[in-house]
């Protein structure tokens, strides 16, 4: 038996950054909002004993239960996709705050080039810079149009940083708080990159350099540099996350309710409008329908795409014909870099998730690609995130991977090794996409999402080029042994690489090439909004969270205008 609940103005599917931002903004305007979160409630008070590497970083305490729902994966269309049985390449958050609880806190604005990548690439290098199987396209919005929303998110989150990146888009105001501490390790990177003619700057951080009260009156504390950020919640309330910012702001209005253990399996619809969502209580397996005037998909991008697919909203992408947009332009991230082994010992165990320095000299179109067989690039950073003992075993080349020699080398080099990492942009390709699996289903009887993805020639060329630049920097830093990033071949779903999945519900200027418009409103259903990294037409050279946060504020503005102006977004 299905229980139909009272209708509300807005229902969000997921309560992380996007769900929290939409809820806070709509609730402040008097709209009644319900947030459906399939995980449990949690907050700062639950993380008092969070410094447990095995429980949180190895056994994934804060992550999705893959025995209930997962994805299937294959490299090519002619392969059979198989379920991802345990967390590997990426970590899917679950519970209040979602991935915004266990993130590192590295907070970026995508470059102006990213939003108009097709236009700018064609103008500079010609329309044939990449072969036609690369499906790059503009986002339907410019950096300048999105800048006020970037500013809004950074002030909500209290981001710590410095406006010293010569390649960044123009800012309407400075960072809310100063950059984090510049440690001896970061100074070593700063000196080397400066000597090589590059422009280093402190990484924008949601691990705050000082206590801060945001415009909504929420308090965020100062980072203690404990080194437990990624895969962990913050027991100090110093790593900005939804449950200490936008969620309490929404609750304070009296117009917001969260229903936990609520897993949405279908978007309900009549004609060209959605009417609400159907969900299961994950504890009792009771079934409910939550009617709403506006439905907003604010869960992780893989789930947003899956819900549209199983609800048969939008035209599925067909890689044979190129028709359809739902599932198109899935993108991951390319990770060039280099490691170095030194003679001196360094303090690598203290740190924070976004304690780092970066150069953008090889990101976006900040360098000439005329004689290169790829476009875009990567930010290159050295981060001091806290090397924990279980998962940190740096060893020089040719060291055995187990036994006495391995143990000796691991102990010897634990305090003597550093890495420079690149976050490389993944360009969309005709054969990289999301769809529904025809064989496997989740615990609720819903088909699993299927991922078809492999690295491309563009990815391999960019990885090689940027890894060589990283090795040059590491050499300049004084490493006695430099190990450049190994060439990439086929993508594998293991081991962990990055949680920065994008695409599948891309935004754009017209329905023929995108799923949603630049207010994140679905082209086919005017009262349905879809917001997250799935809106990215390609992946960039940064973490996605800052750009996702900006899009969420843009989306919230559209929902409020739609609700109050008789369907008009402006």
TrEMBL record:
InterPro entries: FAD/NAD-bd_sf (IPR036188), GMC_OxRdtase_N (IPR000172), GMC_OxRtase_C (IPR007867)
Domain (Glucose-methanol-choline oxidoreductase N-terminal) ranges: 214-323
Keyword entries, A-Z: FAD, Flavoprotein, Oxidoreductase
GO MF annotations, alphabetized: flavin adenine dinucleotide binding; oxidoreductase activity, acting on CH-OH group of donors
Disordered, as annotated region: 161-180
Pfam families assigned: GMC_oxred_C, GMC_oxred_N
Keyword Oxidoreductase: yes
Span of domain Glucose-methanol-choline oxidoreductase C-terminal: 428-552
SUPFAM superfamilies from the UniProt entry: FAD-linked reductases, C-terminal domain, FAD/NAD(P)-binding domain
UniProt-listed PANTHER family: LONG-CHAIN-ALCOHOL OXIDASE
Entry similarity comment: Belongs to the GMC oxidoreductase family.
Designated name of the protein: Gluconate 2-dehydrogenase flavoprotein
Organism expressing this protein natively: Planococcus massiliensis
Native organism taxonomy: Bacteria, Bacillati, Bacillota, Bacilli, Bacillales
């Amino acid at each position: 038996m299905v229980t139909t609940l009272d209708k509300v103005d807005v229902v969000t599917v997921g309560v992380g950054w996007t769900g929290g931002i939409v809820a806070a903004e709509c609730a402040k305007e008097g709209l009644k909002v319900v947030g459906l979160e399939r995980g449990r409630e949690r907050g700062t008070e639950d993380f008092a004993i969070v410094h447990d590497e095995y429980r949180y970083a190895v056994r994934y305490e804060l992550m999705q239960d893959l025995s209930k729902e997962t994805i299937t994966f294959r490299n090519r269309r002619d392969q059979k996709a198989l379920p991802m049985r345990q967390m590997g390449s990426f970590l899917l958050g679950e519970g209040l705050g979602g991935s915004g609880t266990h993130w590192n806190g590295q907070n970026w604005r995508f470059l102006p080039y990213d939003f108009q990548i097709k236009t700018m690439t064609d103008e500079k290098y010609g329309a044939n810079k990449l072969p036609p199987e690369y499906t790059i396209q503009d986002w339907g919005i410019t950096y300048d149009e999105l800048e006020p929303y970037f500013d809004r998110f950074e002030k909500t989150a209290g981001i710590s940083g410095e406006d010293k990146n010569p390649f960044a888009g123009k800012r309407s105001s400075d960072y809310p708080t100063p950059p984090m501490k510049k440690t001896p390790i970061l100074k070593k990177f700063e000196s080397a990159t400066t000597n090589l003619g590059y422009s280093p700057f402190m990484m924008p951080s949601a691990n705050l350099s000082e206590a801060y009260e945001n415009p909504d009156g929420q308090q965020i504390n100062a980072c203690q540099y404990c080194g437990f950020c990624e895969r962990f919640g913050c027991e100090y309330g110093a790593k900005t996350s939804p449950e200490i910012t936008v969620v309490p702001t929404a609750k304070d209005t009296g117009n917001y309710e969260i229903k936990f253990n609520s897993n949405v399996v279908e978007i309900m619809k009549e004609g060209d409008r959605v009417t609400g969502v159907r969900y299961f209580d994950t504890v009792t397996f009771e079934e409910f329908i939550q009617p709403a005037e506006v439905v907003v998909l604010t869960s992780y991008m893989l789930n947003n795409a899956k819900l549209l697919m199983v609800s048969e909203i939008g035209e599925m992408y067909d890689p044979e014909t190129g028709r359809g947009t739902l599932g198109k332009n899935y993108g991951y991230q390319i990770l060039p870099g280099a490691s170095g082994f030194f003679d001196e010992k360094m303090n690598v165990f203290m740190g924070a998730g976004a304690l780092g320095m970066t150069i953008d000299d090889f990101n976006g179109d900040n360098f000439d690609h005329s004689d290169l067989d790829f476009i875009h690039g990567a930010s290159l950073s050295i981060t001091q995130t806290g090397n924990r003992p279980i998962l940190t075993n740096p060893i020089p080349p040719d060291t055995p991977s187990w036994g006495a020699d391995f143990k000796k080398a691991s102990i010897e080099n634990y305090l003597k090794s550093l890495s420079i990492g690149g976050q490389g942009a993944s360009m969309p390709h005709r054969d990289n996409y999301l769809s529904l699996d025809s064989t496997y289903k989740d615990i609720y009887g819903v088909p699993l999402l299927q991922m078809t993805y492999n690295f491309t020639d563009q990815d391999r060329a960019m990885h090689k080029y940027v890894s060589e630049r990283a090795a040059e920097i590491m050499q300049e830093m004084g490493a006695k042994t430099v190990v450049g990033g190994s060439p990439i071949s086929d993508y594998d779903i293991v081991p962990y690489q990055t949680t920065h999945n994008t695409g599948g519900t891309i935004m754009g200027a017209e329905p023929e090439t995108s799923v949603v418009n630049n207010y994140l409103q679905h082209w086919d259903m005017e009262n349905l909004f879809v917001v997250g990294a799935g809106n990215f037409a390609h992946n960039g050279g940064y973490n996605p969270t800052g750009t996702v946060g900006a899009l969420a504020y843009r989306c919230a503005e559209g929902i409020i205008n739609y609700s109050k102006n008789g369907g008009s977004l402006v």
